[in-house]
Design goal:
By secondary structure, the protein is of the alpha/beta class. Helix content is about 25%, strand content about 25%. The chain is elongated and about 80 Å long. Keywords: ATP-binding, DNA damage, DNA repair, DNA-binding, Hydrolase, Metal-binding, Nucleotide-binding, Stress response, Zinc, Zinc-finger.
């Protein structure tokens, strides 16, 4: 009896995820790699390998003969935005600006378009979310009425390309890429296919004609940029616009920048008259009071390369609940819980029957561990009702053993503190060079820091 032999035929991957590139032989609703829904698309027929040389757009040149003028940045005349971009906008460069609704993206880009018009250029603002009349009302409010600023409300890609041909602008603002669709591809506006097609067309126009282009992008509920991940790879610069709608502070960060650094942060004051650059934003995060109060401590955080002085406030009150409240604003909840545990175990302060509230001034968010010491001192001050000196700053990371760990940029942080009138600082040991004129107390653990702060308060 002859045994039957079975052969296994390799299945060619016919579907691919638009987000991460994962491939499968059959369609599925959810990607098996990145777990994204609705991103698996059918692949086209395989193409033959290219073996014949084709025409070139421009000949290859020795590197010392390449013209660098095309890569020169042109200032937007908005100082904080130029800081983040690395000098300004590059002709042919495409910038993706992403942020939550209502944070001020459209207002900022409208001001950029108006500044380009004032400097002798031609700007084209393409709105897919608002009517032309609504955009004009905003322009009147932020003083962006310029005759060389052209406005169109369009959601069709072919019509947008027609406006570009007729206006011949130096700067294009597209607000937003998720609202525009092309009749050449299937899918609803904002879908993976449509976003890829619209972004690709705008990038081709920008590169071929040397037009600086700013594109607004939506974000998902977790803060990431909506649409295919390839969108971030196609553009030259990705800016993240951050801010709490209940606060006036707005921050612009460079997530990706082919023309400049990615460690700079731009700060703006968002008011009724538009966005105003803040070269010295620390004043928004400090409270001016005639006498020091308990539960307040100042720390120095670093955003990009910029040190910012921030006040941390705490309130400790007797609780009548079985589970006392723990609430914070602008700080990481898990780090607050850790600091409370260390204070109770290493500092001898009991919080089991007390409500604890911790917040930052001005709506700023403190992400780095360097603010741990200031949070701990503010909570200890609130618990004992003993004010800390108003001229004191505290910088350091608190460990679970109660020890204080060194942080980066202490000299830069303390120099900024000294410039703003703070004369004393509590920092971990061996923190490096100290600026002249600053009285520094180096401590090794949280108990020593609390004792040093109490000694300064009694002077």
């Amino acid at each position: 009896m002859v045994a039957k032999t079975s052969t296994t035929r390799a299945i060619r991957p016919a579907y691919r995820c638009a987000e991460c590139g994962w491939q499968t032989g059959k369609w599925v609703g959810r990607c098996g790699e990145c777990q994204a829904w609705g991103t698996v698309e059918e692949l086209g027929a395989p193409k033959r390998a290219v073996t014949v040389a084709g025409p070139v757009a421009s000949p290859a040149l020795p590197i010392d003969q390449v013209d660098i003028e095309a890569a020169r940045a042109e200032k937007t005349n908005i100082s904080e935005l130029d800081r983040v971009l690395g000098g300004g906008l590059v002709r042919g460069g495409v910038v993706l600006v992403a942020g939550e609704p209502g944070v001020g993206k459209s207002t900022l880009l409208l001001e950029v378009a108006a500044e380009r018009a004032r400097s002798g250029g031609r700007s084209l603002y393409l709105s897919g979310e608002e009517s032309a009349a609504q955009v004009r009302l905003r322009a009147e409010r932020v003083n962006a009425m310029e005759s060389s600023l052209f406005l169109a409300a369009e959601t069709d890609l072919s019509a947008i390309l027609g406006h570009i041909d007729s206006v011949e602008p130096d700067l294009i603002v597209l607000d937003s890429v998720q609202t525009v669709s092309s009749g050449l591809v299937d899918g609803a506006p904002g879908g993976v296919t449509q976003v890829r097609e619209v972004a690709g067309a705008m990038i081709r126009v920008a590169k071929e004609r040397g037009i600086s282009t700013l594109v607004v992008g939506h974000v998902t509920k977790d803060g990431s940029i909506a649409g295919p991940r390839v969108l971030e790879h196609l553009v030259d610069v990705v800016l993240s616009f951050e801010g709490d709608r209940h606060s006036r502070l707005r921050m612009v960060r460079a997530v990706k920048n082919r023309y400049g650094p990615t460690d700079e942060v731009g700060c703006f004051d968002f008011a009724d008259g538009g966005l105003t650059s803040l070269p010295d934003p620390s004043g928004l995060f400090l409270t001016k009071r005639p006498e020091p109060v308990s539960g307040s401590c100042v720390t120095v955080t670093v955003e990009g390369k910029r040190p910012l002085l921030t006040e941390v406030q705490a309130l400790v009150a007797k609780s009548s609940l079985p589970s006392p409240r723990r609430a914070n604003s602008g700080l990481d909840t898990s780090r607050i819980a850790m600091v409370l545990a260390v204070l109770e175990r290493r500092g001898g302060i009991v919080f089991g029957d007390k409500d604890v509230y911790v917040a930052t001034v001005g709506g700023v968010k403190l992400r780095e561990p360097a603010s741990d010491l200031a949070v701990a001192l503010a909570i200890a001050s609130a618990a004992t009702d003993e004010p800390l000196p108003s001229h004191l700053v505290a910088v350091g990371e608190v460990g679970l053993a109660g020890d204080l760990r060194r942080v980066t940029g202490v000299q830069r942080r303390l120099s900024e503190s000294l410039r703003l009138g703070f004369t004393h600082a509590i920092v971990p040991r061996e923190s490096g060079p100290i600026p002249d004129g600053m009285n520094v107390l180096e401590v090794g653990n949280l108990a020593e820091a609390m004792h040093a702060a109490a000694s300064l308060a009694r002077r």
